[in-house]
Write a structure and sequence with these properties.
The protein has 187 residues and is α+β, with helices and mostly antiparallel strands. Helix content is 53%, strand content 13%. It has a 5-stranded antiparallel sheet, with no helix packed on it.
């Protein structure tokens, strides 16, 4: 097999592997960051509140349209009297937790990383197609096609998944105790 073909195939394979490593790492980092910010707290979706390790409830107090998250806060006088305050928060206004409304693929960060992964896989496909056009030996063409098919399918999957997870979806709804401000854009 031609060394140029082997190098192009290896480079395209590394790009595709790097794209999926980026996908996995970005989602994993997002999940870890959420767990870290809420360590010891439990979210109750039915009541839309957080319960701290000391039994205090954090209720929604602010909806941030731009960042697409809801901020929950405990009552300041309860937090300030709590024996665990020094381990929990340094705020005199009470502990705050922010919950993103958008799941990972819908978030701006998720879409950003998905686009970068899609660009890497598209570059891998382009390298393979150009190399396929340069070499017509049957063994070289078979090797390039053998790699082009799965990488092309990966590009198709990434693009399809990106389209299925549009930005700013799902739309926020009013939650317990939280008054959503009127949308200034009429939506």
């Amino acid at each position: 097999m031609n060394p140029e073909v082997m190098l192009a195939a290896a480079y395209a394979g590394c790009l595709a592997c790097g794209a999926f490593a980026l996908e996995w790492l970005s989602a994993h980092t997002h999940r870890r960051a959420l767990r870290f910010r809420t360590a010891g707290f439990a979210y109750d979706a039915t009541q839309d509140n957080w319960l701290c390790p000391e039994g205090e409830q954090l209720w929604p107090h602010e909806f941030d349209r731009e960042l697409r998250l809801v901020r929950y806060r405990a009552r300041a006088h309860v937090c300030n009297a709590c024996p665990s305050k020094h381990r929990c928060t340094d705020s005199d206004r009470g502990r705050e937790i922010a919950r993103p409304l958008d799941p990972w693929p819908h978030s701006e960060a998720g879409r950003f990383h998905r686009v970068i992964a899609l660009l890497l896989v598209t570059l891998a496909v382009l390298i393979l197609v150009v190399e396929l056009g340069r070499h017509h030996a049957p063994a070289d063409a078979a090797a390039l096609l053998g790699l082009l098919v799965p990488i092309g399918l990966a590009a198709r999957w990434l693009l399809r998944d990106l389209r299925l997870h549009p930005a700013d979806f799902p739309a926020p709804t009013a939650s317990s105790g939280l008054r959503l401000p009127a949308d200034p854009h009429g939506g």
